[in-house]
Amino acid sequence: MTIEVRPASVFEDLRTLVGPKSPDASVCWCLSYRIPSKLNKELRGTARGDYVAELCRTGPPLGVLAYDGDEPVGWAAVAPRSDTSFARNRKIPHVDDLPVWSLWCIRVRPGHRKKGISHALIAGAVEYARSCGAPAIEAYPIDNGADGGAKVDLTMAYAGIRKNFERAGFTHAADTTSVLAGHPRVLMRLDLR
Q: What is the number of H-type helices and E-type strands within the chain?
């Protein structure tokens, strides 16, 4: 298996990874951190997918997709922190004034897990941010090592886990007061300069 990571510019492929099985479902579509809270609550059912389709048509890629041949098998959301709700998040601190990018969601399709795809997605997100001029990239993963390596519920594992970011060269930059599925989140950072 050869995994290729590319900017997420094809809506149908993105829908395969983050869209619902039922078009009327109001799933995240990886919008929760990307758009203002009020708009996020207003977008229901098919309006969420329509919004993402419009973003794909009119803006820069929303992140990166991992492909096994032509099949999309993984997704990572990455964007300038200033373009996300992390810019105003009081639970996740700002380390400094650098215009950092945020990597906040990693998703691997069932049937493709445990094959190194999340590692490829992290590397691809880093390269995408670097190619766009990001001076640094941050992630806010779960630190399940803080509680003895407790198992992380897959539905809440989208933030990633600390050890995967450490393997990718990220270092602990700050603790946060954010908790996800009972696990503390940490701010991990990789300097791209």
A: 5, 7
